[in-house]
């Protein structure tokens, strides 16, 4: 009878509570409240510690490391710490932060700062920037008394998560995972598709009161059932609060199996107790009451079990619906992707067709361009042929104008001279000289030349007839222009110009070089020209370099038939690029030239000077090399010693000048008579002009005469010499042209000669070694004679 109360006290709540106690998960209302407070404090401490580390302990002096909820709210109320942390994580997010002065930091009795607008502006700017980044925001009223500080903590921890994501490189999209609990409070529990579990999670974080976390499956129970099942729901929530979503089904199955097992054990115990009571003679009424209690208890227990089973079934159904929705969404996404793939295929086909069309048009354009280029190449080749024929015809015309062209120029009277002129008349190609006779009658002698210039002729008119020869130099021909006449007749004036030279008084040398550079510039598209200059003089039968700057006049040799066209290879060869460069070099040469004063000329040239311009051109089309050379020679004047009144060194100079001019006359006479031997080597002057006089160049001679009557003898002698020169037949000038094949063959011959020389030197060394070895083996003559003597004695 003592066990009857125990039988009547059997209930489902006791069974479930015993099972939960066996798992060690029974929690009271007080424990849950304490746990929520600890979790909120841990989250608040974590947020405060991160803010202090981010903005610095000085800037966060108003925020303790472990603040209370009131201290946390007051520390962040002015917005400075929040804006500073956001700018550290995302620089420039809050461009303007209002900083309170020392006076503003004084707190009133209720804890508010003196300037409410300042911290409100900071908080507002922080919330706007946080919303743009995507952080969970709070309201400004949450920082006031009675506000929800949990939302502020949540926003700060989300900012910390965003900062950690940026420090890790910021790869992939950033998304805040929600109100996560700090590591110190254990794992949080939440399930997407289960409303009771979501409410349980929110309840643990302090956002939803715990009383709202009931299960909807028990809504059909009456108020007494709700009050009875309330501790059960609290126990179930406490068990599920630290479990992951994937652990819930297994946990429920385990709990249900243990509940069924416990119920069966207790039913068996009750049945055994009832049987024992019946055997001991218990009356039927008590037995009936016990049976009724058992029967009433069993449906209640089964009802509680069914409630738990309904929760699990609802959860499973929700999971299936969620899976179905996910599958439907994936199917829609798959259909959209298939549609996009079809569109991409259509775009690919269109693009491929467009590319094929562009390729076809490109091929057509290339073919059309090829035909145009072919026609241009054909026209260019024709142009080069016409240009070549033009050069040939031009030089043939120059050859047909005569052999050695002779131009005569009459010097005007010098200031102070008033004697009658010996020049009777001047035509375009002839000049008449008046000669006095012994009988007192005047005689007249006429001389014919290619051109005659009177005393009034300008430098420009003289050069105008000389200009066609400059083009021949660029075409690969040698040209020689020299001045002849007695001393003081104006040779240097014609070739170089006066001492104080102007642009109008420039001589043939300057004008020829200027025209040479001008033509080279005009042909720049077809030819590339390299121009270099030499300037030498023949003084007392010695060749001297006029372009030396060290003052040393070493002896130079003349070498004819040089392959590179340099007759004086040891003289200075200076490359020039403009007329100004040549003028500077000529000024240097004129200063170095030997001049002296005589009775006939105060600046008489005591040497023959020669300015040589070397031109090498390369045809850009065929690669052909053209070499041309232009000699501009200013001869020293012939003079009579009795008239020039020279003595000493000047007498020696005059003798050498007359000797070289006499040798030039002998060469001209031999050429005019077509002798087999021409005495070029009788003088350095004739040796230097051998290429020009021997048919290798186009030659022009300026003959100069003086109009004074006392110089009529020298005038007649000079004009007779010039007439002999005009009768010399040089033949056609030779073109100095070297094609690409000829140049390659010459280079190959040079390489073979060098290889042969190396081989010959090696063979000579071998022969020398063999002869030395042979001499070492042969007996000496003395020893041989001794042996022979001995034999004879025997």
TrEMBL record:
Keyword terms, alphabetized: ATP-binding, Coiled coil, Microtubule, Motor protein, Nucleotide-binding
Residues that bind ATP: 485-492
Any one GO cellular component localisation term in the record: microtubule
An annotated Gene Ontology molecular function: microtubule motor activity
Lineage top rank: taxon: Eukaryota
Ranges of residues in domain Calponin-homology (CH): 41-164
Stored Pfam families: CH, Kinesin
Domain Kinesin motor: 403-728
InterPro entries per the UniProt record, alphabetical: CH_dom, CH_dom_sf, Kinesin-like_fam, Kinesin_motor_dom, Kinesin_motor_dom_sf, P-loop_NTPase
Positions with biased composition (Polar residues): 782-794
GO process terms (BP): microtubule-based movement
Chain segments carrying region Disordered: 185-205, 774-794
Family affiliation: Belongs to the TRAFAC class myosin-kinesin ATPase superfamily. Kinesin family. KIN-14 subfamily.
Identification of the protein by name: Uncharacterized protein
Organism (species): Panicum virgatum (Blackwell switchgrass)
């Amino acid at each position: 009878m003592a066990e009857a109360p125990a039988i009547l006290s059997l209930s489902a709540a006791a069974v479930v509570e015993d099972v939960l106690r066996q798992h060690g998960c029974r929690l009271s209302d007080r424990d849950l409240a304490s746990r929520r407070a600890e979790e909120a404090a841990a989250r608040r401490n974590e947020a405060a510690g991160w803010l202090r580390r981010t903005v610095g302990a000085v800037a966060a002096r108003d925020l303790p490391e472990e603040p209370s909820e009131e201290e946390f709210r007051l520390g962040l109320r002015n917005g400075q710490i929040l804006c500073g942390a956001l700018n550290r994580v995302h620089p420039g997010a809050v461009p303007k932060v209002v900083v309170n002065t020392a006076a503003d930091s004084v707190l009133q009795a209720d804890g508010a700062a003196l300037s409410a607008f300042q911290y409100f502006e900071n908080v507002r700017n922080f919330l706007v920037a946080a919303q743009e980044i995507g952080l969970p925001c709070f309201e400004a009223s949450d920082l006031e008394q009675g506000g929800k500080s949990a939302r502020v903590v949540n926003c700060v921890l989300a900012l910390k998560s965003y900062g950690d994501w940026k420090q890790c490189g910021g790869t992939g999209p950033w998304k805040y995972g929600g109100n996560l609990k700090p590591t110190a409070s254990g794992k949080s529990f939440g399930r997407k598709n289960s409303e009771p579990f979501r409410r349980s999670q929110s309840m643990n974080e302090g956002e939803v009161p715990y009383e709202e976390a009931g299960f909807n499956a028990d809504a059909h129970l009456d108020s007494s059932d709700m009050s009875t099942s309330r501790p059960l729901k609290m126990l179930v929530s406490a068990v599920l609060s630290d479990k992951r979503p994937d652990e819930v089904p297994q946990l429920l199955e385990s709990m249900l199996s243990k509940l069924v097992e416990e119920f069966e054990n207790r039913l068996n115990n009750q049945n055994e107790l009832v049987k024992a009571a019946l055997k001991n003679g218990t009356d039927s009424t008590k037995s009936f009451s016990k049976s009724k209690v058992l029967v009433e208890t069993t449906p209640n227990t089964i009802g509680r079990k069914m409630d738990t089973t309904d929760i699990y079934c609802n959860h499973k159904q929700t999971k299936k619906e969620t899976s179905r929705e996910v599958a439907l969404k994936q199917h829609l996404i798959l259909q959209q992707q298939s549609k996009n793939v079809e569109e991409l295929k259509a775009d690919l086909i269109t693009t491929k067709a467009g590319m094929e069309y562009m390729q076809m048009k490109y091929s057509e354009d290339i073919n059309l361009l090829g035909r145009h280029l072919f026609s241009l190449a054909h026209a260019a080749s024709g142009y080069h042929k016409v240009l070549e024929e033009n050069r040939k015809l031009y030089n043939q015309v120059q050859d047909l104008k005569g052999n050695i062209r002779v131009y005569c120029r009459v010097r005007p009277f010098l200031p102070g001279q008033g004697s009658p002129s010996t020049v009777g008349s001047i035509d375009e190609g002839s000049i008449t000289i008046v000669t006095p006779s012994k009988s007192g009658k005047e005689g007249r002698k006429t001389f014919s030349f290619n051109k005659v210039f009177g005393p009034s002729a300008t430098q420009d008119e003289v050069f105008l007839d000389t200009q066609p020869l400059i083009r021949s130099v660029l075409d690969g021909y040698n040209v020689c222009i020299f001045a002849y006449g007695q001393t003081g007749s104006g040779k240097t004036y014609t070739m170089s110009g006066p001492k104080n030279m102007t642009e109008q008084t420039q001589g043939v040398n300057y004008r020829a070089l200027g025209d040479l550079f001008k033509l080279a510039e005009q042909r720049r598209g077809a030819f590339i020209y390299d121009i270099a200059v030499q300037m030498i003089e023949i003084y007392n039968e010695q060749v001297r370099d006029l372009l030396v700057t060290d003052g040393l006049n070493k002896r130079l040799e003349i070498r004819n038939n040089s392959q590179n066209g340099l007759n004086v290879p040891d003289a200075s060869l200076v490359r020039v690029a403009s007329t100004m460069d040549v003028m500077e070099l000529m000024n240097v040469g004129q200063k170095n030239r030997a001049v002296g004063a005589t009775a006939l000329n105060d600046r008489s040239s005591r040497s023959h000077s020669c300015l040589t311009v070397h031109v090498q051109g390369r045809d850009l089309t065929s690669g052909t090399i053209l070499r041309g050379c232009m000699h501009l020679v200013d001869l020293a004047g012939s003079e009579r010693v009795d008239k020039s009144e020279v003595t000493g060194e000047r007498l020696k100079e005059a003798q050498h000048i007359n000797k070289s001019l006499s040798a030039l006359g002998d060469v001209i006479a031999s050429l005019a008579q077509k002798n087999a031997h021409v005495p070029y080597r009788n003088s350095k002057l004739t040796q230097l002009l051998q290429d020009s006089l021997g048919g290798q160049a186009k030659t022009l001679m300026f003959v100069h005469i003086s109009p004074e009557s006392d110089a009529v003898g020298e005038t007649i002698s000079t004009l007779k010499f010039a007439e002999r020169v005009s009768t010399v037949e040089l033949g056609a000038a030779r073109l100095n042209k070297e094609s690409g094949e000829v140049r390659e063959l010459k280079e190959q011959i040079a390489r073979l000669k060098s290889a042969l020389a190396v081989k010959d030197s090696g063979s000579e060394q071998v022969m020398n070694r063999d002869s030395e070895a042979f001499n070492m083996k042969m007996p000496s003559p003395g020893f041989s004679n001794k042996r022979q003597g001995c034999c004879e004695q025997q």
